Amino acid sequence: MSHTSSPPQSAQFRHIGTLHGDITVPGDKSISHRALMLSALAVGESRISGLLEGEDVLATAAAMRAMGSHIERGSDGDWRVHGVGVGGLLQPTQALDMGNSGTSTRLLLGLLASHAITATFVGDASLSARPMGRVIEPLSRMGADIHATDGRLPLMLRGMAPAIPISYRLPVASAQVKSAIMLAALNTPGMCEIIEPVPTRDHSERMLAGFGANVVVELVNGVRHIRVAGEAQLRPQSLTVPGDPSSAAFFAVAASIIPGSNITIRNVGMNPTRSGIFKLLRAMGGDIVEENARIVGGEAVADLVVRHASLCAVEPDPADAPSMIDEFPVAFIAAALADGRSIFRGLDELRVKESDRISAMVAALKMMGAVAEELPDGIAITGSSGEILPGGGNIAGLLDHRICMASAIGGLMCHAPVTIDDMAPVATSFPTFAQILRKLHSDS
Ligand code: S3P
Predict the structure, then answer these.
(1) Which atom of ligand 1 is nearest to the CA of 352?
(2) CA-closest residue to ligand 1 atom 11
(3) What percent of the chain stands above pLDDT 90?
(4) Disulfide: which of 44, 159, 239, 328 matches 115 by Cβ 3.0-4.6 Å?
């Protein structure tokens, strides 16, 4: 049952003490989506260990099954995927339900755009409010016929095979748009090129190369040019998905702001295009030590030891935003407990995530009794210098997992409980969030 069909699960959070212990966060959501999609396009059986079993990733798995690939979870927890080969996807017989997942939607639109498939995409209220024009535009140039009301879901796509190769300069810094074109390129004759003025997460580039696709990344005058050769043949792989830095971030902030805390987060993905939040926390004075740095499945991974520290205010460089784009809600919580006024700018993209994360977090911070001001492209926050916040308010999660989890972490530094109206969306990306939080409290 997806969170949209379940009754609301309200929950309360307040300061109940320090966090201690050793935790492992679930698999990376971005890498899990890509692992399923590419395995479903390889010829033969791939194995995936550490796959995130959250609702968003399960929506991708269901869509790939509906288009002919065989996907099952073994009793050992590993997933086995029998791929159909690039160009071999089948016509789905029903609408593809993307739930809350923007990544499933945008990446699958790309994948289907170069297959002779007609498909309808539907999603929940949050996803149906998000802009799809950013992928419709380049995929239409490749020949796909896409109908959407107002550039949003529900949407109907008729793919084009053979599609037309394009060279496309990304107008927004978006790994989803980049990846949609890369996936469309796989079944397109010739070479597609994506020009990426602002670097974004590079999991698609890394994983496609691992599956044997011809992907070349070149820096031209400091700008990334990514070329993907079409009519690719992908070889099945054994993949290990590292822990999600976006999930680790909630507990890294929690341990940083709660006095006396000392935690270890194992197996955290540290790809530089993703780990901006840890850099930011360090710039604020955070005490984060990386141990056992290693490479897992072509991705940098480390264990993080995080201890409480007195944080100071920051003004992050907007150029760093893509490397922590999903972590801003919880970064705002760190700023609310820091010493001084933090100013975050250049964050227009936050307005088109699962919710408008700027206005959602301003409202949440005010409910906690923090001092926050909404800016057109960001937020200004005057921190409490480590003082516990009053708390006591009601927070709307707005079908946005990261607003729910960031608010919960903020609640851990509030005197009176903050109530979050519905924590069910957390199941999209981090089903074990509450369980891990309980463990960190009980180990204290
Ligand atoms: C993602 C890219 C980002 C991020 C999202 C996952 C991905 O979105 O916010 O959670 O897996 O490619 P944008 O590409 O819209 O920035």
Answers:
(1) 15
(2) 30
(3) 97
(4) 159
368-379 pLDDT, tens digit per residue, is 999 999 999 999
The residue segments making up the domain with residue 366 are 7-27+242-442
Residues 21 and 56 in one domain: no
Place of tokens 């005057």: 382
Taking the CA atoms of 316, 320, 325 and 330 in sequence, report the sign of the dihedral they define.
negative
Neighbours of 224 (CB within 10 A): 19
Candidate of 30, 34, 103, 353 to mutate for ligand 1, largest count of ligand atoms within 8 Å of Cβ:
103
Residue 138 has a CB neighbour count (10 Å cut-off) of: 23
Say which residue the tokens 């079409």 belong to. 230
CB-CB neighbours of 191 under 10 Å: 15
pLDDT tens digit sequence for 260-289: 999 999 999 999 999 999 999 999 999 999
Q: Please compute the mean of the pLDDT values over residues 323-340 and round it to a whole number.
A: 98
Per-residue pLDDT of 13-60, as tens digits, reads 999 999 999 999 999 999 999 999 999 999 999 999 999 999 999 999
| pLDDT confidence of residue 4 | 58
User: Does the structure show a pLDDT above 90 at 431?
Assistant: yes
Q: Which residues line ligand 1 (CB under 6 A)?
A: 30, 103, 174-176, 179, 201, 325-326, 349
**Do 114 and 181 share a domain, yes or no?**
yes
SS3 167: strand
- Select from 208, 239, 270 the last residue of a domain: 239
Q: Which of 31, 101, 176 for a ligand 1 pocket mutation test, highest count of atoms within 8 Å of Cβ?
A: 176
Q: Which residues contact 414 (CB under 8 A, 6 or more apart)?
A: 13, 14, 15, 368, 369, 388, 389, 390, 391, 392
Q: How far apart are CA 69 and CA 260, in angstroms?
A: 49
Rounded to whole angstroms, the maximal C-alpha distance in the chain is 61
Which amino acid is residue 225, in one-letter code?
A: H
What's the structural domain count of the chain? 2
* pLDDT band, residue 1 (cuts 50/70/90): very low
How far apart are alpha carbons 53 and 399 in whole angstroms? Answer: 19
Scanning 264-400, the segments in alpha helix (DSSP H) are 276-283, 328-337, 357-368
